[in-house]
Amino acid sequence: MSELDTERSISLDTCAQEPIHLPGSIQPHGFLLVLDEPAMRVTMASESAAAYLDKPLHLLFGATLTELLGADAGLESLLEKEVTTSSRYFKTLQVPAAGGRSFEVIGHRQGSFLIMEFEESVGHLDTEAVQIEIYNFMTELRQMRSLGEICSGAVTLLRKLTGFDRVLLYSFDDAGHGNVLAEDRNAELPSYLHLRFPSSDIPEQARRLYVVNRVRVIPDVDYVPSRILDEEGSTPEFDLSGSVLRSVSPIHRDYMRNMGTAASMSVSIVSSGRLWGLVSFHNRSPRRVPYRLRTACDFLVQVVTSHIEALLESEKLSRAIDLTSIQHRLLTWMAAEDNYLLALTSHGSDLMALTGAHGAAIVLDQSCTLVGNTPSADQVLDFTAWLQQSARGDVFATSSAVSIYPPASHFAACASGVVAVSISKLHDSYVLWFRPEVVQSVRWAGDPQKPVAQGKGDLTIHPRNSFESWMQILRGHSLPWLPEEINAASAFRAAILEVVLRRAEEMARLAGDLEVANRELEAFSYSVSHDLRAPFRHIAGFAELLREEESGHLTSRGQHYVDTIVESARFAGLLVDSLLNFSRIARVQISPTAVDMTQLFKDEWGDVVREDGNQRQIEFTAESLPKVMGDPQLLRQVARNLLSNALKYTRHQPHATVSISATREGREYIFSVEDNGVGFDQRYADKLFGVFQRLHRMEDFEGTGIGLANVRRIITRHGGRTWAQGETGKGAIFYFSLPVIA
Amino acid sequence: MLKPILIVEDNPRDLELTLSALEKSKLANEVIVARDGEEGANYLFRKGEYADRAIGNPAVVLLDLKLPKIDGLELLAMVRKSPELEHLPVVMLTSSREEKDVINTYKLRVNAYVVKPVEFKEFVQAIQDLGVFWAVLNEPPPGSMRVLRNGNR
Questions:
Q1: Do residues A209 and A203 make contact, with C-beta atoms less than 8 angstroms apart?
Q2: Structure pTM?
Q3: Chain A residues with CB inside 8 Å of B123's CB?
């Protein structure tokens, strides 16, 4: 591929150190003269100069260009124009001293030296035809919308223009790994399409060189290098970075021979000063490419480069827009759901698209929800536990989990790449995205694994070995996460936290509202207690005084009215007191102590029966009830309410039974208070526990209708539940549960 | 001579009911009525309209909690801070059964806290019991007697 692909194969150490810009020689299809400024006389020359100019080398030193090439060469005046460090084409020059052969004259500056290269002209170039081809292609380019289309269009045209057997276009990813994107070839050479090779194939100094000097050419791999010599006959260390004739590494020539190519050329794709990719030209037999055609190729590649840049930029932009709208959609769903994080999993494809992942997971307090292609839930939980423990920060991204977390080897195939964002400082809560191992995700066109015919020589230097090496290097790696993908994850995390924060604020606001409401309620019940009771007391008091002192003046009907007033005022007072008690239950501090429920129920039963005063035969059982933790005063109210209800509603039973029992179910005790009284319609079972809800007429069964509401409130405050079961005329069972003492 | 009973009560109807209850109890003690906390304080500290009253503390103060100007708790606090009156028997006679009120009142070393019953018979019974207990059975604190006898301060 490139001339430096091979250096990996010999020795990575020497490769990185080889001074490839200082070869000390050129290829022999032209000659090179170094002029010393300001004298403008030759101080160094390539051996080939002597041959081309038919003059011993030592006679060249100290001569001017006019002296060597003839007065009509007119080069001196051309050189007055600015010569820069990058090479410049001056003219095509016919040199009488070289037997009338034509040369392309190219020059560039290197310190205080002018380096003049004379590349022997080759063949006839129909510049007009080339121009038309390029022009037409540029028109077509405007219609092309995909990278693949642009790249294959470019290689097709480049091969057509240059006549090489094979033209490849490949790109480098951020890690520097190469990937052949497009190829055009004839049957002479095999396909390398979609081959990949590791970044180490092209060391850093080579990349720099390729950025500076975009076009390199090797017309004949079997050339004999032509040394550059100075007057003393030695080869000075001389930077040939800008040279078009520069000689290449002998190893690279071995490499070319192994590939079965005698001639090659490459043109760099440089984007924003970075080596984005290369176009590589190969030919089975030696091949010269006219200088101006190479220039045209370079021009074409630059045009293509700018199209690729624009395309990538617009893809990036539209991806950014996509990401924003994906994020927006996800947040909308999250906002709509109570369980906002799990809302993400029902929109898994968007969640994955956010970072270009193949799988995702949401970890919330030790529970894990998976979407797409992922490790198992346990593996994910182990991984997040490790993340938490190793304090990897809020946003964690790796394209090779296994390199930092060895257990990841078990799920490398589906999740070599991991992005994890922490969404809670307190709990192990994460959103994670996964990418498969890259060698699993590469799609093949053709079969790069197919063995090629082994040629002679050392075939360790071969693109297919590069491919093998690339696969080894990228075992356990995913495609890299792009900065914008990590940014998307990070922005998403911020958005989630905002949602979480907003929820928390909402909760805090609600709690605040509740507190205000509670205070108002407290103020209300206080005023009820103090202000409402007073008028009832007055009504009752004065009605009583009326009855005592003035009953002689009242008719019997009048006395009945007064009795009713007294009774109503008394009942009103009772209601107010009940309501007050009810509101107090909600606010009172619970002071839990161990309560013996058997004793409690027996005590209360005694009290209730005494107050009832009704002499009846009632069978009461309350045996071996458990001890619970609770507020004795409040639990006493529970027992009293339930027992007085049982007593009240069995009033008409000749053989009343009231029995209390308890069973343990898991972490709670279920208590039941069962009677054989009038019962109730099961349809109204839940109404029973409402405030002032009554299922019987007042004249049948007296009461304020708040007793069971108190029971429910007290039991709820103890962490229990209340329910009831009954049938009209067949008794009732009231249940309540209380937590088992830990 | 029987020491008087001081009633501090702003509500005329409660006052009337209290007075009729006391009437029914046939206590011989004089009943002094103050209609707000300030008047109650003036009587106790012999200020304002009571600046010239004869020296001597009541047998008991029946004090309402919610009162205009100076409320029951404030008046109780004033009484407990005063060296002459700190042992004066004070009974909080109120409609409120609020725990907060009960606790705050006891913190100020009230002698009794009585919630006015809604039912008149109970109310009469309560007032009578209070009158009999504090005005007849209870031995008043000796400190105030000494002040009374010495006539100074």
A1: no
A2: 0.56
A3: 537, 541
